[in-house]
C-alpha cells in the first residue's frame, strides 16, 4: 500500500461520518418544527432542497480553498487529479501516471457529484417508496401495476449493481491494485491522499484580507469541524444507549418497594454473605456497597446482572465488583 493513501477503514469511517450529517440536521429540524411550526414547517417541507443548496456552498468553499471536502479536510486529507502521459523512447511507448492539484473543472465535477448525486438519490428513493404504496392500493389497473413493478425491480437491481461495483473497487483498493475507493472517483480520476499543508502559505495571495472574510473563513473551518465532532459524540451516545441508562437510573431508588421485614431466620450479620449465608470467604465488594463472597457474587452477576440485595441493574456486570485483598 502507498503510505500517502488512507486505509480502507478510514474511508469507510469518512463515509459513515458523511452520512450522519443530513439525518442529524433533519432530526434537529423536525424537533424544533413541532415547537415552532409557523416558522419551520415550510423549511422542513423543503429540507432536501435547502440542504442541497447549503451543502453546495459549504463544499464549494472547502474544495476551493483546501482541495478537499468538508469531512476530508477534518481528517487532514486532500484530493489529487490522476492523469497519464505517453513517453516515447524510440519504438517503445510507456504510460506514466502523474498527479496534480485539482483545477476548476475538477472541483466543479466533484462538487456536483458530492451534492447533486445524493439529492437525486433521495428523490428517487421517495418516488420508489410512493410507487410501492400505490401497488398496494385497491383498484389499480393491471398495466399500471405491472409498469410500477418493473420500475421498482429495475431501480433495485441498479442499486445492487452499483453497490457490488463499489465493493469490488474497495477490495482492489485494499489490495493495492487501484487508487480509488468508489466509482465516482474512478470516473473523475481523483484520489485522496494525506494532506501536506507545508507549502500552503506560498499559494496565498499577497492582497490584504478583510475582517469579514477572515470571520467567514474561521466560522466555516472551525464551526463545521466542531459540528462534525458533535455528530460523532451524538452517534457514540446513541449507539451505547447511555440516555436510556441514565433515565432508568433516576427511578432505581425512587420506585423501590417497601423494605422487607427482617426475620430471625433470614438475619445476616456483617460477616455473613447475603447469597450463601455463610461467613464471607474471599470478600468482594459490589458497586452498590455490599460485600459478598467472591465466587458467589461472580456467579450471581453472570446470571442475574443486578445487585442481590437492592435488585439495582448493573451497567457493566463483569467489572462491577472488586476483590478485596485483606
TrEMBL record:
Keywords: Ligase, Membrane, Metal-binding, Peroxisome, Protein transport, Transmembrane, Transmembrane helix, Transport, Zinc, Zinc-finger
Domain RING-type: 273-311
Lipid bilayer topology: Multi-pass membrane protein
Pfam families (alphabetical): Pex2_Pex12, zf-C3HC4
InterPro entries membership: PEX12, Pex_N, Znf_C3HC4_RING-type, Znf_RING, Znf_RING/FYVE/PHD
Cellular component, GO annotation: peroxisomal importomer complex; peroxisomal membrane
Gene Ontology molecular function, alphabetical: ligase activity; ubiquitin-protein transferase activity; zinc ion binding
Lineage: superkingdom: Eukaryota
Subcellular location: Peroxisome membrane
GO biological process terms held by the UniProt record: protein import into peroxisome matrix; protein import into peroxisome matrix, receptor recycling; protein monoubiquitination
First-listed, main subcellular location of the protein, grouped into a coarse class: membrane
Pathway(s) annotated for this protein in UniProt: Protein modification; protein ubiquitination
Family from the record: Belongs to the pex2/pex10/pex12 family.
Record note on quaternary structure: Component of the PEX2-PEX10-PEX12 retrotranslocation channel, composed of PEX2, PEX10 and PEX12.
Annotated protein name in UniProt: Peroxisome assembly protein 12
Gene source species: Schizosaccharomyces japonicus (strain yFS275 / FY16936) (Fission yeast)
Amino acid at each position: 500500500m502507498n503510505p500517502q493513501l488512507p486505509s480502507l477503514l478510514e474511508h469507510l469511517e469518512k463515509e459513515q461520518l458523511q452520512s450522519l450529517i443530513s439525518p442529524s440536521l433533519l432530526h434537529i429540524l423536525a424537533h424544533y418544527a413541532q415547537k415552532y411550526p409557523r416558522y419551520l414547517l415550510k423549511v422542513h417541507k423543503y429540507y432536501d432542497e435547502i440542504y442541497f443548496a447549503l451543502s453546495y456552498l459549504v463544499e464549494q468553499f472547502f474544495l476551493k480553498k483546501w482541495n478537499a471536502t468538508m469531512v476530508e479536510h477534518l481528517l487532514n486529507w486532500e484530493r489529487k487529479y490522476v492523469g497519464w502521459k505517453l513517453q516515447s523512447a524510440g519504438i517503445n511507448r510507456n504510460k506514466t501516471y502523474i498527479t496534480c492539484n485539482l483545477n476548476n473543472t475538477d472541483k466543479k465535477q466533484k462538487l456536483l457529484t458530492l451534492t447533486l448525486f445524493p439529492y437525486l438519490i433521495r428523490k428517487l428513493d421517495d418516488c420508489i417508496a410512493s410507487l410501492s404504496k400505490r401497488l398496494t392500493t385497491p383498484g389499480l389497473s393491471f398495466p399500471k401495476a405491472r409498469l410500477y413493478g418493473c420500475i421498482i425491480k429495475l431501480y433495485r437491481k441498479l442499486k445492487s449493481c452499483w453497490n457490488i461495483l463499489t465493493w469490488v473497487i474497495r477490495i482492489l483498493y485494499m489490495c493495492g491494485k487501484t487508487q480509488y475507493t468508489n466509482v465516482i472517483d474512478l470516473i473523475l480520476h481523483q484520489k485522496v491522499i494525506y494532506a501536506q499543508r507545508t507549502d500552503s502559505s506560498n499559494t496565498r495571495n499577497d492582497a490584504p484580507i478583510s475582517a469579514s472574510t477572515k470571520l467567514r473563513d474561521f466560522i466555516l473551518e472551525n464551526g463545521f469541524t466542531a459540528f462534525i465532532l458533535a455528530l460523532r459524540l451524538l452517534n457514540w451516545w446513541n449507539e451505547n444507549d447511555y440516555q436510556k441508562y441514565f433515565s432508568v437510573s433516576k427511578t432505581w431508588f425512587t420506585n423501590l418497594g417497601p423494605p422487607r421485614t427482617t426475620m430471625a431466620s433470614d438475619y445476616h450479620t456483617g460477616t455473613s454473605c447475603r447469597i450463601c449465608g455463610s461467613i464471607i470467604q474471599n470478600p468482594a465488594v459490589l458497586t452498590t456497597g455490599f460485600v459478598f463472597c467472591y465466587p458467589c457474587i461472580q456467579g450471581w452477576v453472570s446470571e442475574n446482572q443486578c445487585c442481590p440485595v437492592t435488585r439495582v441493574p448493573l451497567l457493566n456486570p463483569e467489572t462491577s465488583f472488586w476483590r478485596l485483598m485483606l
